[in-house]
Specification:
Layout (H helix, E strand, L loop, with lengths): L8 H11 L5 E5 L4 E5 L2 E2 L11 H15 L2 H4 L20
Antiparallel strand pairs: 1-2, 2-3
Length: 94
């Protein structure tokens, strides 16, 4: 099996910053790199590289959080696109 490279610390810090406003979201070691969890659920899995759009990453991880987190936590989230709180929690919304 091919070895997996360590993630650059700057990338981890950027995802941490994107999820900083998401209550009860915790970073922890994963089988490769790190993961962020809310309760028992993973927030999102991403493939990152040198061409990653960090604005898009911020939007994706916060939206994923809002889909998986309980409504009481979602209500506390300010989203990167300027929408404030209440993105549904527990189920995708359109």
């Amino acid at each position: 099996m091919a070895s997996r490279p360590d993630l650059p610390a700057a990338w981890i810090q950027r995802v941490d910053a994107a999820l900083a406003g998401c209550p009860e979201c915790q970073r922890e070691p994963a089988w490769t790199g790190v993961r962020w969890r809310v309760g028992g659920s993973n927030v999102v899995g991403l493939v990152l590289d040198d061409d990653t759009s960090w604005d898009e990453v911020a939007e994706l991880v916060v939206e994923s959080y809002c889909v998986q987190a309980p409504p009481r936590l979602v209500a506390q989230v300010d989203r990167p696109d300027g929408r404030v709180a209440g993105c549904g929690g527990g189920a995708a919304t359109s």
